[in-house]
Every structure is written in structure tokens, then in C-alpha cells.
Amino acid sequence: MFDYDAELRFYRERFRAACAVQAGDRVLDVGCGCGQTTRDAASDAVRGSVLGVDVSERMLEYARGRASERVSYLLADAATYDFGGAFDLVISRFGVMFFEDLIGAFGNLRRALRPGGRLALLVWQPRAENEWARVVPEVLGGEFRDESPFALGDQAVTRQILTTAGFEEPTFTAVREPIYYGPDPEAAYENVLRLREPQALLDELGTVAAQRARDALRATLADHETDDGVLFGAAAWLVHTRRN
Q1: Distance CA 112, CA 83 (A)
Q2: How far apart are CA 111 and CA 82, in angstroms?
Q3: How far, in whole angstroms, is CA 20 from its chain's centroid?
Q4: Are 97 and 149 in contact (CB under 8 A)?
């Protein structure tokens, strides 16, 4: 399983601070994955509670194995699940871009919040602003496939989605931190090949072309090695709003 928490290590504290979880908050973490953001929120909600929700049972199993106090996990689709309207804060680190019906899904998250409750999101800026999302597919010789990770990258689009769903005018704060693929090029190579888009691109190539692409990928990862590991440029938005 790819270690997304490691990949996003440079975003961890920035997102945690931006969420500004208060001591008594009831927090919903959407797309919680392996639970790092859920546990961070619980550490700050010292008299509150945090519910992490995800559609991956495998990731939730991992999260449950590291559960802390005031944390629970739920296998559910946050776009449609009835959360009951009791939360003070909904958070998500790169977990809300994939809904098929974005307005409907955010309408459901609005209903999960008490009146005046907050929404704090970390979402990718457009693909063009993210080196990791441009370079790897280009090196593998394929066309860009899945644009869903960047569905909220355009501020005007995201603003319209959120306000239509019943939230106040959102604010956007740009964050530029690298993503981490591994401590060295070989580890990074193994990690990148666990990702869905590179796998799909390589699967379409013949034996000779696939080997050529793999060699090019190794060389590119080596070019991105730093003292902090193999890093690629990335850009995200911190998005804040409240339920109307």
C-alpha cells in the first residue's frame, strides 16, 4: 500500500494548523485514509471527538490499528451518508475532489455541520501547477488520464460549488510544499509504480517501450533526489468556509 502520509509529510503541520481544531470540537474527517489527520485532530480536540470516514476498508483497517482516544472510524460514502448534523468542523486533506456529484456531496457535508460550523479543506491546485502530476506521465510517454484530483483546483469553480451547496463565500490560501516519493531514487521508483496513473500508462506499452519508460522514470527520479529525499514540486489550496 502506498504511504500517502509520507508523501504528504510537508503538508501535515500546515494543514493541522489551518484546521484550528478547538478543545471541544466534534470533527468529521472526510477521506481520512490511514487516519493521520484524524489522529492529529483528536490530539487537538481534547474534550471533543473525531470521526474518520473513508471508502477504503484496507486503509481504515490500518487506521483502526493505530486508533487513539476520542477517535472512531466509519466505512461509508461521505457524499450520501447521513451524519446527523452534529459536527462543529468538517476537514479533508485531499479527500473531497473525487465525488461524482460535487455539489450534492458538499450539500451533504453541509448537513453534517451544525449551523455556523466550519469546513477546512486541502485540495490540489490545477495539474499545470503540480510538477509531480505533469512530469511522471510525460516521462512514461502517456496522456494525462484522471483529472479528478484537480477538480477543485480552479477557485471560481470551487467557489460556485461551495456556495451553491449552501456554504458562505470561501477563502483560498496558496500552499507550495513538495511531495515526497521516498528516501532515495530506488525507493521512489517502487512507490511511484504503486500509483494508479503510472500503472495504467505502463500497462498500455509493449515490452520494449515499457522498459524504456521505466528507465526514463528512474533517471527522472534520480534528478529529483535531494538531501530530504526524492521531491517534486506541488501546489495546493487551503479552503475555508462555514455553513450558512
Answers
A1: 5
A2: 8
A3: 18
A4: yes
Q: Are 154 and 126 in contact (CB under 8 A)?
A: yes
Alpha carbons 3 and 194: distance in angstroms, whole number: 10
Q: How far apart are CA 117 and CA 187, in angstroms?
A: 42
Distance CA 108, CA 129 (A): 30
CATH number among 3.40.50.150, 3.40.640.10, 3.40.190.10, 2.60.40.790, domain 4-242: 3.40.50.150
| Pairwise CA distance, residues 230 & 149, whole Å | 21
pLDDT of 196: 85
d(CA 241, CA 110): 10
pLDDT at residue number 110: 98
Q: What is the 3-state secondary structure (H, E, C) of 90-111?
A: EEEECCCCCCCCHHHHHHHHHH
From the CB of residue 11, how many other CB atoms can be counted at a distance below 10 Å? 23
Q: Once rounded to an integer, what is the mean pLDDT over residues 53-77?
A: 93
- Helix 207-223 to helix 131-139 angle, to the nearest 10 degrees? 140
* Whole-number pLDDT of residue 146: 78
Q: How far apart are alpha carbons 97 and 57 in whole angstroms?
A: 19
What is the structure's pLDDT at 161? 98
Q: How many CA atoms lie within 13 A of 207 on its CB side?
A: 0
SS3 call for 137 = helix
CA 177/CA 11 separation, integer angstroms: 7
Residue 94: closest CA among 51, 37, 39, 27: 37
Q: Are 89 and 19 in contact (CB under 8 A)?
A: yes
